Amino acid sequence: MDFLIEFLGRLVGQLQSPTLGFLIGGVLLAAAGSKLTIPNAIYQFIVFMLLMKIGIQGGLEIRDADLTAMLLPALFSMIIGAAIVFLGNAFFSLLPGIKREDGIATAGLFGAVSASTMAACMVVLEEESVTFEAWVPALYPFMDIPALVLAIVLANIYVKKTKEGKTSEVSIWGIVKESLRSSALSALILGLLLGLLTRPERVFHGFYDPLFRGFLSVLLLIMGMEAYSRIHELKRVAHWYALYATVAPILHGLLAFGLGYLAHIWTGFSPGGVVLLAVIAASNSDISGPPTLRGAIPSANPSAYIGASTSLGTPVALAVCIPLFIALSQVVFDT
What we know:
This protein has 335 residues and is mostly helical. Helix content is 79%, strand content 0%.
């Protein structure tokens, strides 16, 4: 009963968060027939700002980390991000009525990482006096970028085969290069390199960081309006997305917990680090993922991947996965 009360409390708290509030606001505006529009040029600029901020911050965290200690967890993070996309794509490809690009985009979004969920887990771990390595938050680009790139590559391969015929050859390397050159991923990778190789602290703290939340609110408003405009496409298959969004975060987290446990045995990776890695895997991107997928897989329906992520994926990651993996670590590590 206590666990159920905690779950409902966190779910209500998530519904009151600004992130979800602006998204719901966009849906309500579109449902009410509002004439509000945001020019596409402004949208593209906002996406650039957000992804540069995320990339620079990730680069700064990686630069200050002990690279030898984080090598194996970083490798595992890349494997987890790719595995989530492959598994999700396989799941959706077997279901009737699912548009293939929608399934791939959903798998990509769940393979990518939510910085807000990661931050929430860090706060809970600190409150529980569970220690973890300072560089663990820097693992998120290693999981986030491979998941997004792989989803884009798989979607482009499918679209090319559909248009050109099943017998046509598809250049995977060409699609990878094209994916990496997309505006969204280019900004994310550029920010990562700048944070890693330069000294951008002043411009980061003076420009990108202060504007982040304001720009994010506008982006979510746009996402909400677009999601509503295409929601009729989702009605026939919404139950499959609900099932995936409920179960997938837990399975993804268990996969990461298992690999994190191996890193603990082989390199001394801390129990707190294992928990945080599991929660990172259980999360689904609410910032970099949606605009990246929207720009790189335009044929995918945002109502599918954003709806699955926001309505169920994020609450499950926050309310179920964080306490679940903390409790699991207490059993496994006997702490």
